[in-house]
Write a structure and sequence with these properties.
about 775 residues, nine-stranded mixed β-sheet, eight-stranded antiparallel β-sheet
């Protein structure tokens, strides 16, 4: 019997009572799974806390589900709807495209464009053979004939490639010419390489143009007995302005195109102008065919756009300046943003279900490890009921979804100061790339992953999961420590997600007296940031419970809200860096990278911003002089010791993992109080790169005074206020000792004050309150 494994996802990450949600499940080794609706309370199994806590909920979805093996379409490509068979050419034709291959020597066939049936060897296609040579091939269902370039393609170099085919004579002429300039390719003109290749071959037979065969760019049709049709022979690299013409073009006509001209107008069957469709707000999934038949292409698994093209001149760094230079579309054979599985079951969220974090728990066989799945989702309130709102940082969950740092990042052990702790879940995710990658990973061709979606299993967005490289909970299961504390305290709390906030804006927050964040809300869209700033300025109270928050600029795909985009630029603590000229989001048109580099450092909203990261140890806080000021002394009421926060589930204290610091030069409000600060961090803690203009010795925890977590508080207009912990580990300190600890006491003081309407304690600013104790 096959190993029993079960994985799934939901079509929505946030849902209201009365709305429908569907569950998509893939199972190996079993035909049925036991399903149970669960409310998740706590997700860390550390013995210093309450352990994993979940509550079973009565639901129509409980019981036995029929489950089966499901398959994922890997790879990004463009597909052309051609119902009238305009591209099933019965006569002469030519194919062409500018290409920038990233792995020409991948060892498997890559299709650039054509109508090719891999299983039946029918049709025609222009592509790259396993040895890295440009090749054109045709098939009649029995045999395949081909013409191959003499010279291999170089990786990351722009070429114009094409073929002209005379069906009557069988003559096929291959065209390959380099079009590299001073900027557009990995190498420059000083490399003495011969890029051109022109080969003529007489084919023995004619291609069989199967009428239902789709025209595909960056892939070819294949078929499997169990999974049915899918796209295979996927291409890695960029393609710019692909075209098909209805006659055999001459070499001189190809030369015109190589110099920036168009193919002869009367010959064009389809010309996909990849530089079209850009707007100030980005570009969608459609690639426009400017030819006579308007056979527009549609992207699958998010081919990456807003990328430099064959004619990029190095001067214009954004597609908004000159879209004609940004026709490159980048394809990756291992990209996936939608598994596309059939729905296994559906549920209408019951009208009386309380707002919270839920999951459908699925078990087969032993019901542990890869035989247990939690399909997580958030239930929003039908209408706001509580005064407190927990903002679930789902964009950050997507950023880290299925990260493989322990396997692929060579620096991870020196960075974390410990060996990784690998589970069967980690191995399964790594071995099965059809579950997709995180924005901390690289595609097979070493390009950074810029898209992430929840339309796939996310193994680290579940309770009990510990990040293998750090051996602590991270993101979603770490945030459940805050959820457990809210539950323990008995607060009436509503739950909303980043996606909700991005879509609905500040109006979503206004009903609440207090909004509390997760431990690491690192990835933020402009709409999300605007909403929180407007909420505070309008009198709202924000509790920032983390470190390294409000850091990366992201966008959501308006056509597919489940998908988030980020580009890591040339600053910040990052796993990869976008190539020159490719710093702008295709989903929104705005520059990505750090919010700090867009003039909106997190200090302007929260009072603190990212200063250091370190792992293996955490430290307590020490009260600062401001803590005794009468305007804020209520925050540490009941915390008698000067040092506090010395317990926790993330390395045994409240200040650690990633730290934020008060900094007036970056926009910390000048009246901000520093309640407490950590110190004495180990040399595993290092200063963030955006703070550096020049590297020098001593930029580590034991030597650099800036490496600390600052706990801050400031008031805002209309009785608003912001309290920040400045540490990722703080949220995981709350459950320590049965929630009876100093970190939890401080947070309770703040939440209780923030949930009381009117002036906050110390807000009157009387003469007495201006004095020190």
């Amino acid at each position: 019997m096959a190993q029993q494994k079960i994985f799934g996802y939901a079509n929505r990450i946030s849902v209201r009572p009365g709305e429908d949600i569907s569950f998509h499940v893939n199972c190996d080794g079993a035909g049925e799974a036991e399903a149970q609706l669960i409310q998740l309370i706590h997700g860390d199994t550390d013995q210093a806390g309450p352990g994993h806590v979940e509550v079973e909920v009565e639901s129509s979805v409980n019981g036995r589900w029929a489950v089966k093996k499901q398959f994922t379409q890997l790879g990004s490509f463009l597909k052309i709807a051609d119902p009238e068979g305009k591209l099933a050419v019965s006569g002469n034709f030519s194919l062409m495209a500018f290409i920038w291959p990233t792995m020409p020597h991948r060892g498997s066939r890559q299709t650039i464009l054509g109508r090719w049936d891999t299983l039946r060897n029918k049709g025609y296609a222009l592509g790259i053979n396993p040895a890295g040579h440009l090749e054109f091939w045709v098939g009649d269902g029995t045999e395949v004939d081909y013409v191959t370039a003499e010279l291999p393609l170089l990786p990351k170099v722009w070429y114009l490639v094409g073929v002209s085919y005379d069906r009557e004579t069988g003559r096929a002429e291959l065209y390959q010419e380099g079009v590299l300039n001073r900027y557009n390719s990995l190498v420059g003109k000083v490399v003495p390489h011969e890029f051109a290749s022109h080969v003529v071959q007489k084919f023995r037979f004619k291609p069989d143009n199967r009428t239902d065969l789709p025209f595909i760019i960056a892939g070819a049709l294949d078929e499997h007995a169990l999974r049915g049709p899918f796209v295979n022979d996927l291409y890695a690299g960029k393609i710019d302005r692909p075209a098909i013409c209805g006659r055999a073009l001459s070499r001189a006509e190809f030369d015109v195109c190589r110099q920036g001209g168009l193919p002869p107008a009367e010959s064009v069957l389809a010309y996909w102008d990849t530089s079209k469709d850009y707007t100030a707000n980005g570009v969608g999934h459609q690639v426009t065919d400017t030819g006579p038949h308007r056979l527009n292409a549609r992207g699958f698994n998010h081919p990456v756009r807003a990328m430099t093209g064959w004619n990029w001149n190095g001067k214009d760094d954004c597609f908004r300046l000159d879209p004609s230079q940004f026709g490159g579309i980048e394809f990756h054979p291992d990209a996936v943003t939608d598994c596309g599985w059939e729905a296994t079951n559906r549920m209408t969220v019951p009208a009386g279900l309380k707002s919270g974090i839920y999951a459908v728990r699925l078990r087969i066989g032993p019901g542990t490890g890869v035989a247990e799945e939690y399909v997580v989702f958030v239930v929003r309130p039908a209408k706001p009921t509580g005064k407190l709102c927990f903002l679930v940082p789902t964009a950050s969950y997507l950023a880290y979804a299925n990260e493989a740092l322990s396997f692929d990042a060579q620096i991870i052990q020196p960075m974390t100061g410990q060996p990784p702790v690998i589970t069967d879940l980690d191995v399964e995710t790594y071995e099965h790339r059809e579950y997709g990658l995180s924005t901390y990973d690289h595609y097979e061709d070493d390009a950074g992953v810029c898209f992430s979606s929840y339309l796939r299993p996310i193994v680290n967005m579940r309770p009990k999961y510990r990040m293998s490289s750090m051996n602590i909970t991270w993101q979603f299961p770490a945030d459940l420590s805050i959820v457990a504390w809210i539950d323990h305290m008995g607060y009436d709390c509503d739950f909303i997600t980043d996606e909700d906030l991005h879509r609905e804006g500040v109006d979503l927050l206004r009903p609440y007296l207090c909004v509390i964040t997760g431990t690491h809300p690192e990835y933020v869209s402009e709409k999300m940031l605007d909403a929180q700033e407007d909420y505070v300025a309008g009198g709202g109270r924000l509790i920032y419970m983390g470190g390294n928050g409000y850091y990366w600029v992201i966008g959501f795909d308006s056509e597919m809200p489940a998908c988030m985009e980020v580009r890591k630029l040339d600053s910040g603590m990052r796993a990869w860096a976008a190539k020159p000229g490719e710093h702008y989001l295709q989903t929104t048109g705005e520059k990505s990278g750090l919010w700090r580099n867009r003039g909106r450092a997190p200090q302007k909203l929260t009072g603190v911003g990212f200063i250091a990261e370190g792992f293996e140890t955490s430290a307590p806080y020490r009260k600062m002089p401001d803590a005794w000021h009468r305007t804020v002394s209520w925050i540490t009421e009941g915390v008698d010791r000067e040092v506090f926060g010395d317990k926790g589930l993330a390395y045994n204290a409240a200040a650690g993992v990633e730290l934020d610091r008060y900094d007036l030069s970056l926009g910390t409000p000048p009246h901000t109080r520093i309640i407490a600060s950590s110190g004495g961090h180990s040399d595993n803690y290092v200063l963030v790169t955006e703070e550096l203009l020049y590297a020098y010795a001593g930029l580590t925890g034991s030597l650099d005074y800036r490496i600390r977590a600052d706990m801050t508080y400031f008031t805002a207009p209309n009785n608003g206020a912001v309290f920040s912990t400045g540490s990722i580990a703080y949220g995981q300190a709350l459950p320590a000792n049965g929630f009876d600890n100093s970190a939890a006491r401080v947070l309770a003081n703040v939440v209780n004050a923030f949930l009381t309407p009117g002036r906050l304690p110390g807000g009157n600013w009387t003469i007495e309150e201006k004095q020190w104790r």
